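Recall that a protein's primary structure is simply its ordered list of amino acids. Everything else, from secondary elements to tertiary packing, is in principle encoded there. The following example makes that idea concrete.
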Amino acid sequence: MNSKGLFLTLVLFVAAPAALTAGGPVVEVQKWSNPKGGGDFSLCVNCCSGSPFSYNPKHPFITEITMVKNSGGFVTVQGKITNPALWRKTFRVRWEWKAANGMMSTAPADDALTMVTLAGKEQQVIQGTSTIPDPSAAVLTFFQHAK
């Protein structure tokens, strides 16, 4: 592959995930410090344009957030999502895991997003497990339901 082809491949690789998450500010909602002096871990939420939620720290729709790290360094994050409306909300979610070196890994992979439906006033626990050991952050992105 020549240098022009490599450049185009890198631009497409970097721009493709950005296109999926465009339109929503990424907000840090929880941070955990490592008491043993290692790196910190933070959970961020991204509510894309058209998703049924927008993050308001005074009235968060995701609460009771916990994080557990196993002996292999893989992290599981769990939180309770509440639909404050009286009507049903359907949306798609994706977890992105950021390594300390800045590389990202998504779950589910690429365009295969997890669909969630909440009835009015319903609560549901959602969780994700890192696809890389020792991540420094996770971004939980909410997308509009595909019609």
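Helices lie at 3-21. Residues 3-21 form the longest helix (19 residues).
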